[in-house]
Write a structure and sequence with these properties.
Pfam families: Cation_ATPase (PF13246), Cation_ATPase_C (PF00689), Cation_ATPase_N (PF00690), E1-E2_ATPase (PF00122). By secondary structure, the protein is of the alpha+beta class. Helices cover 48% and strands 13% of the residues.
Length: 1107
């Protein structure tokens, strides 16, 4: 075992400590001699790349992994410059005392300036980290280092709880309510003499209302955070490491310094690593740190004295966007570059969602109206009442009226109702295996009118198998025919070459724990295409642990979505290599000059007849929805030394030329069982469903026909038709966007297929034509082209959802209005998404349905709250101020209606099921169809609100006439006369008692009238006879319970002596509890009549203004 004192030194200092020349690796005992020998040649194959291409990768731009921390690129770039300056200063001063720096408290600049991992050779870095490159860490050593350094997790951004608390308490309606608190306190003391206990109680009550609203806002945020945590818990990030001489998959949080980690395309780098070897073309997307979309080439040797800029360092959080490699972990968790920056940066400032913008818009309207009315009352008092009716309204009474206006016009219960509505629908989504990352995302789904979906793994099962095999001039009836050829006494050389290429040009491998199963049932580590070919190979050899392992690989270029091919090389002798290439026919065929002939059993030139035979097989299999791949080989003699940049460049230049076709394979990926029905339902919901895939056009079109994306019996239109149509619509110019009305008149077929290379050639006028098609398949697309498709659709006022599962889908998902990932997708795709489907693809239909339901229920909640909680409360104040009527409703009773009686009833609306099939409606136009519309104001204020206001005032006047003998005509313009002794023979105290009881009558009347309102509001078009709350699918027992609760609150407020004393209320005569019942029924009948007129005359004037 190695000296453990070295292992206990913090890893950021190990590079600076002296080591003995000979070192015994601490876990060498766990690595067998055979294992070391099997891997010995790997060290001779380490290479660093000089990238052959600067093209963008699947992960760049906006689609790259987006950091949870804002300001990271700025922090990183600043830090890099400071480190470079520190190096220059250190060289100038000749100072280098690492241990002294470590003992003291260093800042980030000195911390990274003094790291030397990137400057050491591969063998040196392994010695300094006390690890064997062939065996990795032992489990015991990894546990010790993990215990010493802590888990490999980033420090969470600090939450500014003071700021959050401030906005909870002072945001939205609360800002106005605090003004009311101050006014009530002033009215309590010093303005009232003696101090008014009622004013104090009202101030405290309003504070309780504010705290209640703030609590629900906080609970909503906490629920969102908990949902995000549950998503990350369900989808832990894992990585492949070498432990005890064996490859194993562990959670990234359990990585320790010194771990040997294997990186592949699409992986997120789990910790800061020093590259030990790679495939020759590895590239990283560092945009998460640098903010730049340009990819960074990987290297083995140091390329820059600055640790942060050297290309042999792979930094945590970056994406492997090309190639593969092996690295050793040097910094984990908070000590990594990302960890250091994360600790110093604040959280992301979130953009408001559509529903948040709608609520903010409503709050602004209400607050503005409230301020206008309050100022109107204040000016009326200053310029008129104080002068002509000085005894009628003093300062306290005026302020009480102003606050009555504020309390009356603001629906205090609405924020609570909105929060609960969103949370309840989010809970429903989770119950059907849909996890929204934010509550606002729920409603946005209701606006989606275009869905762009990836094919492989999203629309299909991603369970590929080889279905057909052929040579250029000979098609096998089935893959089993190839096996029969191989088992014959003299196997045909063409079949042998095909099988050998399939075996040796493959990066998939079987899980060792599943070797006892048949090849088709084994678990495979690798991409779906390689997995299908591996199972084909395993079926021929009878078992899957042979083949590749018998022949060491000298060089490889893994498959990526740019090149659409992979390459492997095996040394034959000296500098001569056998090269195998597998990939897309349209990419590799131009590089092929010869082929293995099944008829002559020899290699022949690829003439026109062979070209035609190849194309015929490809098109035939593509029309059967098979993905066609071609296998090629060649022999290369290289002059450069293996493991150098020159070697990689020579391979890159010469490999894809003069190839020999050894075979063609058709791979089938069956669609998910629910895909066709899902697409049909999305179409019925008014959302166009497009396929965006990297597959060959005919294959994509065949699958699109199978699953219902293409429904037209005619062949789909193509690029040439688009160009002709655009030119016909605007013959003078195709470079500018034409008139959409002209384009709409063009004869456009409902289906369209476009390939990636054609997308870049589309003009704005042609995009206008493309975006009108109902059925589109975009084939052979790159991540950049997927991103452009989304952006072009959004430019034309479409709300776009993108579904996908791979790193290539992440840019488009991030740019879309709603990104939807499947749970089996990559971490990058899930990070870029707004919604995660945990089980089946058809859950997207339920998500759209619930998104529309939440908007519908929110409108019902608001339409219910406004009549009593706003309109019917503001008119008593206006009658009191401008018409001299004794105040029919006190501020206390206004608050009780808004926050208690109405709130419980509105919560029952949250539980309402859909009134009709929501998928039969077109998607909501977010620019035109607002949460609060002019029609809702008409319904809530002019129709229901006016009826409730007139009825409640009538009950107030009836009480005053029946019990006090004072007619309504005497109360109008009474002003100060009502408060004086002798008015209709009553004392001032008696008149005050009559007024108090009248206020409670008004209050009870409103509470009961709201029962009729809620029975009306729960159905916008259907009659209560068709959808009552007791029977059938629309049954809602919560509604009857909430009615009982509101009645209990009304009884408590008016009948409890303590409340009567504190808040100046009074008992209500029994008949005024009973008379409002038929009046509430009358309100329900009036709305039923309105609905009937709308149903009978859907194009009439009433229907035109109906909500």
């Amino acid at each position: 075992m190695a000296n453990e004192s070295a292992a206990d030194v913090p890893p950021d200092l190990e590079a600076a400590l002296p080591r003995p020349a000979g070192i015994a690796f601490e876990d060498s005992t766990s690595c067998s001699r055979e294992t070391r020998e099997a891997r010995a040649d790997r060290s001779t194959r380490r290479s660093h790349s000089r990238s052959r291409s600067r093209r963008r990768s699947p992960s760049n731009g906006s689609g790259g992994a987006v950091s949870t921390y804002s300001g990271v690129p700025i922090e990183y770039r600043t830090l890099s410059i400071q480190v470079a300056e520190s190096h220059r200063q250190a060289f100038a001063d000749g100072v280098a005392d690492l241990k002294g720096d470590a003992a003291g408290k260093r800042d980030d600049q000195d911390y990274f300036a003094n790291l030397g991992f990137h400057q050491l050779a591969v063998d040196q870095i392994c010695q300094q980290l006390n690890v064997s490159v062939d065996c990795g860490l032992s489990g015991e050593a990894a546990a010790r280092r993990l215990d010493r350094d802590g888990q490999n997790t980033l420090p969470r951004p600090k939450t500014n709880y003071a700021k959050k608390l401030f906005w909870y308490l002072f945001g939205g309606f609360c800002s106005v309510l605090w003004v009311g608190v101050i006014i009530f306190f002033l009215c309590w003391r010093p303005l009232s003499s003696p101090p008014s206990i009622t004013m104090l109680a009202l101030a405290i009550l309003v504070i309780i209302v504010i705290v209640l609203q703030a609590s629900f806002s906080a609970f909503q945020d906490w629920s969102t955070v908990r949902t995000m945590s549950s998503i990350m818990d369900l989808l832990p990030s894992e990585t492949v490491v070498l432990r005890d001489g064996k490859k194993t998959r562990i959670p990234a949080t359990e990585l320790a310094s010194g771990d040997i980690v294997f990186l592949e395309i699409g992986n997120k780098v789990p910790a800061d690593m020093r590259l030990l070897s790679h495939s020759g073309d590895i590239r990283f997307d560092r945009s998460v740190l640098t903010g730049e979309s340009e990819e960074i080439e990987g290297a083995v040797d140091c390329t820059d004295p600055n640790f942060l800029e050297s290309r042999n360092i792979a930094l945590m959080g970056c994406i492997v966007c090309n190639g593969s490699g092996v690295g050793v972990v040097i910094l984990t968790g908070a000590r990594s570059v990302m960890g250091r920056i994360a600790a110093a940066t604040a959280g992301v400032k979130e953009k408001p969602t559509l529903i948040q913008r709608e609520i903010t818009r409503f709050v602004r309207i209400i607050v503005c109206l409230t301020v206008v009315l309050a100022l109107l009352i204040l000016l009326a008092w200053v310029g008129w009442l104080r002068v002509q009716h000085s005894a009628y309204m003093g300062v306290v009474a005026m302020l009480n009226n102003v606050m009555g206006c504020v309390v009356a016009f603001i629906p205090e219960g609405m924020p609570v109702g909105v929060a609960l509505t969103l949370m309840m629908v989010a809970r429903r989504m989770k119950a059907v295996n849909i996890l929204p990352k934010g509550l606002g995302t729920v409603e946005t789904l209701g606006c989606v009118n275009v869905i762009c979906s990836d094919k492989t793994g999203t629309l299909t099962k991603n369970e590929m198998r080889v279905n057909s095999v052929a040579l250029v001039d000979h098609e096998f009836e089935s893959p089993e025919d190839v096996y029969q050829d191989l088992l014959s006494e003299t196997p045909p050389e063409g079949s042998v070459a095909l099988y050998r290429a399939a075996d040796l040009c493959n990066n998939a491998s079987f899980d060792p724990t599943s070797f006892h199963l048949p090849p088709r049932d084994r678990d495979v580590q690798g991409n779906a295409t390689d997995s299908a070919v591996l199972r084909f190979v395993a079926g021929g050899m009878g078992k899957g642990d042979e083949g590749q392992a018998q022949k060491p690989r000298d060089f490889e270029i893994p498959f990526n979505s740019k090149n659409k091919w992979m390459l492997t090389m095996y040394c034959k002798q000296s500098n001569e290599y056998q090269v195998y290439v597998k990939g897309a026919p349209d990419v590799l065929l131009p590089a092929c000059t010869r082929y293995w002939s099944g008829k002559t059993n020899s290699i022949r030139p690829l003439d026109l007849a062979a070209h035609a035979a190849f194309k015929a097989f490809r098109d035939k299999r593509s029309r059967h929805a098979e993905r066609v791949i071609v296998l090629c080989e060649k022999t290369m003699k290289l002059t450069s030394r293996h493991g150098t940049n020159a070697f990689s460049d020579e391979v890159a230049i010469g490999a894809i030329s003069d190839l020999i076709i050894v075979g063609i394979m058709g791979i089938v990926d069956p669609p998910r069982l629910e895909t066709a029905a899902t697409i049909s339902e999305c179409r019925r919901a008014g959302s166009r469903f497009f396929m965006v895939t990297g597959d060959y056009g005919l294959t994509a079109a065949a699958i699109a026909t199978q699953i219902g994306i293409f429904t037209s019996p005619r062949d789909p239109d193509t690029f040439d038709h688009i160009r002709t149509t655009a030119a016909a619509a605007n013959p003078l110019s195709t470079s500018k966007s034409n008139d959409k009305s002209v384009v709409a008149e063009c004869n456009i077929n409902s289906s369209l297929i476009l390939e990636g290379h054609q997308i870049a050639r589309l003009t704005m006028a042609e995009w206008d034509v493309v975006c009108q098609y109902q059925e589109i398949v975009f084939a052979r697309t790159t991540p950049e082209q997927k991103l452009r498709i989304v952006n072009e659709l959004r430019k034309r006022d479409n709300v776009v959802a993108v579904t996908g599962d791979g790193v290539n889908d992440a840019p488009a998902m991030r740019a879309a209005d709603v990104g939807i990932a499947v749970v089996t997708g990559s971490d990058v795709a899930i990070e870029a998404s707004d919604l995660v489907l945990l089980d089946r693809f058809d859950e997207i239909v339920q998500a759209i349905r619930l998104g529309r339901l939440v908007f519908q229920n929110l409108q019902k909640v608001i339409a219910y709250l406004l009549p009593a909680g706003s309109w019917s409360e503001i008119w008593p104040v206006l009658l009191n101020v401008f018409f001299g009527v004794p105040l029919p409703l006190s501020s206390f009773l206004m608050i009780i209606i808004c926050v208690f009686t109405d709130l419980f009833l509105s919560l029952s609306l949250i539980m309402e099921k859909e009134e009709f099939d929501l998928l039969s409606l077109p998607p909501r136009n977010h620019r035109r169809d607002h949460l609060i519309t002019f029609r809702i104001y008409i319904q809530a204020y002019l129709f229901m609100g006016s009826m409730e206001t007139i009825t409640a005032h009538a009950m107030f006047f009836v009480y005053m006439w029946k019990y006090a003998g004072i007619p309504a005509s005497a109360l109008f313009f009474a002003f100060e006369a009502y408060a004086k002794d002798g008015f209709y023979g009553y004392t001032a105290d008696q008149l005050k008692q009559f007024n108090t009881t009248g206020q409670c009558v008004y209050f009870v009347t409103l509470v009961i009238l709201q029962w009729g309102n809620i029975l009306s509001v729960r159905n916008r078009r259907l009659s209560i006879v068709q959808a009552d709350p007791i029977r059938g699918k629309r049954r809602n027992p919560w509604l009857l319970l909430s009615m009982a609760i509101s009645l209990a609150i009304a009884v408590f407020v008016t009948e409890v002596p303590a409340i009567q004393t504190l808040f100046v209320t009074a008992s209500v005569p029994i008949e005024f509890w009973l008379i409002p019942l038929p009046l509430a029924l009358g309100i329900l009948c009036m709305d039923e009549l309105r609905k009937l007129v709308v149903r009978l005359f859907p194009n009439g004037p009433i229907a035109h203004i109906a909500w």
